[in-house]
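Per your request, structure below.
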């Protein structure tokens, strides 16, 4: 019988218990809606599986209605499915976090280390050296690991668009 319930509901015994626990934690109005939806689904299940006993069909319909109401498993972990509004909220959070990271930029420690050797950077650039070899020089000789693009950024801030 457990295999039959697993097949109809798509959930294991443990997950079905989690669904029931989740439903019990909801406000009564929501529980009533789930019961009503379960009644409708019971008729649908009865049409598809007339050989199924009524009590098993009703139980499966209730579990399926609860899943549709907002509970579902994600990789078997039992997390609720996010609705469109929740997803939009999460995307706003992700954009805000990305904006703060971009606004903060690189760590000021790296900037200070590079500016401590700025005289050498200017001399090497005046001799016609590119930013990649300068970044390599700083990494090997001065133990300041940086990228050529970051040197270009600092160069534009300090020396202008030369």
């Amino acid at each position: 019988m457990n295999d039959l319930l697993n097949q109809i509901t798509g959930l294991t015994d443990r997950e079905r218990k989690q669904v029931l626990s989740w439903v019990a934690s909801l406000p009564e109005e929501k529980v009533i809606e789930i019961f009503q939806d379960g009644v409708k689904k019971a008729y649908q299940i009865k049409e598809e599986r007339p050989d199924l006993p009524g009590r098993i069909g009703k139980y499966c319909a209730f579990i399926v209605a609860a899943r549709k109401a907002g509970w579902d498993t994600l990789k078997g972990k039992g997390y609720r499915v996010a609705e469109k509004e929740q997803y939009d909220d999460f995307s706003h959070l992700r954009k805000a976090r990305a904006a703060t990271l971009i606004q903060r930029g690189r760590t000021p420690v790296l900037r200070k280390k590079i500016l401590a050797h700025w005289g050498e950077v200017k001399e090497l650039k005046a001799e016609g050296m590119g930013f990649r070899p300068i970044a390599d020089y700083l990494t090997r000789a001065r133990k300041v690991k940086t990228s050529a693009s970051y040197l270009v950024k600092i160069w534009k801030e300090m020396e202008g668009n030369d």
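Residues 36 and 65 are 9 Å apart (CA to CA).

Regards,
D.
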